[in-house]
């Protein structure tokens, strides 16, 4: 009899402990959800309120990259290797740089010599040579820019085109955000509060389209001197870069101004931290996946006056405070 009662007591005790543990787990989960829900998305000025024109391009399955001779682009089972770039004759009006590439897919390999600005289809891929930057002091000098898409994912008129075309021909390539990268605009002169941020953004959009062949500004969000956050490129799509790193998966924040020459304001530091905290929560970005552009490429970006906030843990500390992370 005592044995039965003892077993019954042990069983009840185990059930009670399990119930308590379950309740505590549910409580902890609720606390996490509550903590997560306390931090709202920062106020953001929509793209439509500053744009000169709506973003261009079309959604597609593709890859865009800048590479130097002897380097390769891998996209699906295609490999494109840049063999050689020959600058155009400076004395000939309208002459174009020439590139030699090697394409490999499975057991098939082919070498092609093409002009900058051309496009063609090969083995189910549409390949555009957007620019060969051969001028010594040109931004991105020494790099050739390619865009590769699957033929099935792009509009028919683009697939049939023999030219790379302008910004309206460009692919908007979807991605999943897994990291955060901080940039600065690196403007030639110091920006001040007397400047018009909307005008600066329109200038960046126009320059990107005309000089870089970008379908929109290259960053997802941009922060003005007073901490106002402006919407840039739709963050569901990959940003663009003048350097070699692959921006797929990167949530791109840019601070307007040149932070090799000017110091960020307290309002900007707070806005950067707010936006980073929202992105960490929204996309489950690990805190060790927050970078400066200089961590990924040979560049001083985001500038010598902004980099210390990344390096001394200021942003990480602020994110933890905002998200109640210990």
Describe this structure in a few short sentences.
The protein is α/β, with parallel strands linked by helices and 326 residues long. The protein is 27% helix and 25% strand. The strands form 4 sheets. The protein has a 6-stranded mixed beta sheet with strand order 1-14-13-15-12-16, with helices on one face. It has a 4-stranded antiparallel beta sheet with strand order 3-10-9-8, with no helix packed on it.
Q: Which descriptors apply to this entry?
A:
single chain, 326 residues, alpha/beta, Lysozyme-like, Tick-borne Encephalitis virus Glycoprotein, domain 1, 2 domains, 6-stranded mixed β-sheet, 4-stranded antiparallel β-sheet, 6 helices, 27% helix, globular, disordered N terminus
Characterise this structure:
The chain has 326 residues and is of the alpha/beta class. The protein folds into two domains: 45-56 and 174-323, 3-Layer(aba) Sandwich (Lysozyme-like); 58-169, Sandwich (Tick-borne Encephalitis virus Glycoprotein, domain 1). 27% of the residues lie in helices and 25% in strands. It has six helices and 16 strands. The chain has helices at 2-37, 156-159, 197-211, 266-283, 307-311, 314-323; strands at residues 44-45, 58-59, 62-67, 72-75, 78-86, 98-105, 108-115, 119-122, 125-132, 144-150, 171-172, 179-184, 221-223, 229-231, 250-255, 290-292. A six-stranded mixed sheet has the order 1-14-13-15-12-16, covered by helices on one side. A hairpin with a 2-residue loop joins β8 (119-122) and β9 (125-132). α4 (266-283) packs across α6 (314-323). The longest helix has 36 residues, at 2-37. It is globular. Mean pLDDT is 90; it is low at 1-36.
């Amino acid at each position: 009899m005592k044995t039965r009662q003892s077993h019954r007591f042990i069983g009840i005790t185990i059930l009670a402990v399990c119930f308590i543990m379950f309740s505590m787990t549910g409580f902890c989960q609720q606390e996490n959800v509550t903590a997560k829900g306390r931090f709202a998305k920062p106020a953001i000025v929509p793209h439509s309120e500053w744009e000169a024109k709506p973003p261009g391009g079309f959604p597609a399955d593709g890859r865009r990259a800048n590479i130097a001779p002897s380097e390769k682009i891998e996209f699906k089972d295609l490999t494109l290797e840049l063999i050689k770039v020959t600058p155009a004759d400076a004395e000939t009006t309208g002459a174009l740089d020439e590139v030699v590439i090697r394409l490999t897919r499975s057991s098939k390999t082919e070498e092609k010599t093409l002009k900058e600005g051309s496009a063609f289809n090969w083995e189910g891929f549409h390949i555009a040579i957007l620019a060969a930057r051969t001028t010594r002091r040109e931004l991105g000098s020494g790099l050739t820019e390619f865009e590769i898409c699957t033929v099935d994912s792009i509009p028919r008129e683009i697939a049939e085109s023999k030219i790379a075309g302008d910004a309206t021909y460009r692919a908007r390539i979807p991605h999943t955000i897994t990291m955060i990268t901080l940039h600065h605009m690196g403007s030639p002169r110091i920006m001040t509060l007397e400047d018009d941020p909307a005008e600066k953004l329109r200038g960046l959009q126009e320059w990107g389209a005309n000089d870089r062949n970008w379908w929109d500004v290259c960053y997802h969000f941009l922060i003005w001197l007073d901490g106002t956050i402006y919407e840039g490129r739709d963050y569901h799509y990959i940003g663009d870069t003048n350097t070699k790193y692959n921006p797929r998966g990167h949530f791109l924040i840019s601070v307007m101004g040149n932070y090799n020459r000017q110091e960020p304001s307290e309002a900007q530091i707070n806005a950067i931290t707010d936006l980073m905290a929202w992105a960490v929560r929204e996309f489950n970005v690990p805190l060790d996946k927050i970078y400066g552009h200089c961590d990924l490429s040979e560049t001083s970006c985001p500038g010598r006056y902004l980099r210390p906030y990344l390096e001394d843990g200021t942003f990480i500390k602020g994110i933890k405070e905002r998200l109640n992370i210990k």
